[in-house]
Amino acid sequence: MSMAIAGRAKKVTTHTLQEMKRAGENITMLTSYDYSLTRLVDGAGIDVILVGDSASNVMAGNDTTVPITLEHMIYHAQCVVKGVDRALVVVDMPFGTYQGDTKLALKSAIRIMKESAGHAVKLEGGVEITDSIKRILTAGIPVMGHLGLTPQSIYKFGTYGVRAKEDQEAERLISDALALQEAGCFAIVLEKIPAKLAKMVSDKLHIPTIGIGAGTDCDGQVLVLHDMLGITKDFSPRFLRRYADLGDAIDNAVKQYITDVRSGDFPNDEESY
């Protein structure tokens, strides 16, 4: 193990991720949206925390990521950053804050960095957003890319199905990945694409790939925290592994609390002053 990797325990940076790819060490990434859960996730040793626009779904109850605003994302990022000692914090730029307008993209990214103290931003898209990426990088703001299934474009795709199964779309994705690397992205999320294609992309790039539903050959993996903890119950894609069943645990705890209060068992003498 290199000295760079051995010494990364204190703080993960974009450079750390580059070193991990070179050393063949898989990168771990989870979403988080609040202080309390972030403390636990960061303390467990996660490498990257994504303040995902999936907050629109799991925190706000929206059907898609489209409605969440820049102000909402900044708020969640502020909460997360306060809970982090080690992980790299990447903040999603929400729909409408960077597409087609490089000046708006730069302004939005600067607001995220200044108001939340996050460490990097993430944008969805390929060649069509490289101008925005380059503009953001002029301010010294690190950018993570996102290809494959891009949830902000759900109304364009019309489905959350696997992307790039056909040769033409697969070739476009490879071109997009190379374009994002050339534009200056430090890493790229690959979402719901065939594992064989994800391996091809990962092998072609010198920057890390982070997979979600993209097989085992990416340089790292990401899941939505509430999904992998079993808090969300109505979402069970093939790529999701549940590492806990907190949904049932919380349900049982709340029901027991209700029973104890109604019966007079809580609080007892030892729990009273």
Features:
43% helix; 8 strands; disordered N terminus; alpha/beta; 273 residues; TIM Barrel; 13% strand; eight-stranded parallel beta barrel; 12 helices; 2 domains
The CATH superfamily of the largest domain is identified as Phosphoenolpyruvate-binding domains
Domain unit count: 2
Strand content: 5-15%
CATH class of the largest domain: Alpha Beta
Q: What shape does the CA trace take?
A: globular
Number of strands: 8
Rg on CA atoms, Å: 20 Å
Number of helices: 12
What is the CA-CA span between the terminal residues? 55 Å
Which spans have pLDDT < 50 for at least 5 consecutive residues? 1-8
Taking the sheet with the most strands, its summary is: 8 strands, parallel, barrel
Helix content: 40-55%
Q: Give me the CATH fold name of the largest domain.
A: TIM Barrel
Coarse structural class = alpha/beta
Instruction: Give the rounded overall mean pLDDT.
Output: 93
Tell me the CATH architecture of the largest domain: Alpha-Beta Barrel
